[in-house]
Amino acid sequence: MPATVWKGYLSFGLVSFPIRLAAAARAETVHFHLLHRKDQSRLKEVWYCAEENKPVERADIVKGYEYSKGEYVVVEDAELKKVAPPTAAAMEILQFVRAREVDPIYLEKSYYVIPEAAAEKPYALLRKAMTDSSYYGVAKVAMHSREHIVIIRPAATGMVLHTMYFANELHAANRTAKVEETFNEKEMDLARRLIDTLAAPFQPDEFKDEYRKNVEKMIGQKRRGRTVTAVKQPKNTPVVDIMEALRRSLEAQKPAEKKAPATKKAPGKRSRKVA
Fold first, then answer.
1. Global confidence as pTM
2. Structural domain of residue 108, as residue ranges?
């Protein structure tokens, strides 16, 4: 059974049923430990008190909020539980929105919504209703010491929940300014044709983490005492002639034309010379 990250009730209107959430994905990376360069011994994290100039045990550590420079309010875990909102135990769908209205920039993490054994009927009912109507549910849930706005959507075999950033958490100042459209129709036509040549059904299994693969290869080479093979890097140059770049890109995408096999001529009859 997958690890449960949240457990409670999901409701829409007066219909309420128990569910739990399990992580839908986790990034896979090559993990490194910190070592002492001198003897390659493992380093351990030590919590240090600057006031007493000595290490502190984990049991003696508390949370503190700095409300002014050097001034803190100590907050205990039990106190955080006291002020947890109702969404810590129940999430209510506040509204339904069209799928196309949800900008992916708001999406943060993904979770599988798993119904408890006695809740399969209302779970299946909600999933089917959202599928048929092309609606997503918007709700709130409190977990991991904060309240999240979430999107609940129907998937192939169940429902998936995505936590979302709040609007004030988006870095609007980093947003790209509107770019002036100075291209002509010929350039637009070539760009569309290039997109068409690269268009294909999305197959996630086809994409692999090349960086992770290269790091694992490097580790294997170092373990065997071999020289690390450098990865050849492409030479990127600014586009000077966009039309020429588009034409060359289209030519590169065209499959090599197969030469038609030469047809053999049927052997002809030799004509006799008449004396």
1. 0.77
2. 6-28+82-171
